[in-house]
Here is the input.
Amino acid sequence: MQVKHQFVSGIPDDPNAAAAGEVLPSHWNADHQVTLTGADISGALGYTPYDAANPTGYVTEAGARAALSAVSPVTYNPATGQIGFVETANAFSLNRLENGDFQVFQRNGGAPVTGFTGSAVHLDRWNDVSTNAVLSISRDSEALPNTWRHYRRQITTPYDPATNTINQCYVQQGIETQTLSDSGWGTAGAQQITISFEVRSSVTGNHAIALRNNTPGGPKVYVTTYSVPVANVFTPVSVTIPGDQAAAIGGTQNFLGLSLTFCHGAGSVYTTPTTDTWLAGEFMYTPGAVAVCNVLNATWDIRKVKIELGSSTTAFEIKNVSESVAICRRMYEQGTVISRWGNGANIPVAVTINYKTIKRASPTLQITMTSGTLGTVTSLNTDSASITGTSNGSGQFDFSWAALTEI
Here is the structure.
């Protein structure tokens, strides 16, 4: 380091000075340079400053910028140090199932269903199927102050599923294709799927569970089992299934992609000895699994059902009941219409139903008349329906309705 200094004064000039205002002789007025070393500076400061030659703890501006990073939706440019934000679409819920906590029970006034055979949705989004066994299905609750209340209960009057090749007894939920659009299925990067739930049954042993991919080329299934080691105690279960690298999930958006099936017995058409691999077909049961539907008064309870991408089980998400109701109404909604048409007896009427939630697709509309005569459904959309009819002798046109678009 070089330091140059000059001496300037207002004292009258020395006649020997080289220039006005300079006191010193001209030979003193020459530039004077002093070289200071790093040791001179560090000695004066009492410490050694950080620099490129002494890099411990030394960070340049570029280095400081390069050391920083950001997580979406925050963006960061290390070359300029600029921070920004990116507007992103809402992320999927971890749980790709709906009403896995059984909070919503719109049908049957929430009352238990007894003496059931056939195929029908009772607790929202869960389809019950039994070709022969007579089922009782209910939404039951644990007494407070338990932190988890609702569960689905099933009680059976038995049948032997082996008596007919096409017998079936199961509960199932379908998942729309776009709900798992980030799964990567159909590629080498297909993500695993983990199914978790808590189950309680009076019948111990291995129970059958299946995941079905409803591809345009035909269904593919993965059948496996889970264990109920102790009777009548809620047991946590986690089942991880490899992603299907050969086939993408489902097909058309808003329509059926995957189906989760808890099978309690099935005939040979739906039974396979091959488990823990993807197969073409509609299998849901495997020999040696418990046939709950063939055990008199067997109980099978389930709660906290979850499907998520990946191989890890995360805590069950407790949704606000209002949110759960709105989600379920996208598939099923019910209501009543009470119309009074003055004193007009037996006159033509027209009524519009405006749904509380936009439907997945144009629904099937079920109408049960209380008074008056139903005419026709003149329009049926995802957000509304219009019907015509005739009032009764008192000018009344009353009915209950249900809009269905289940998958």
User: Anything to note?
Assistant: The mean pLDDT is 86. Residues 321-329 form the longest helix (9 residues).
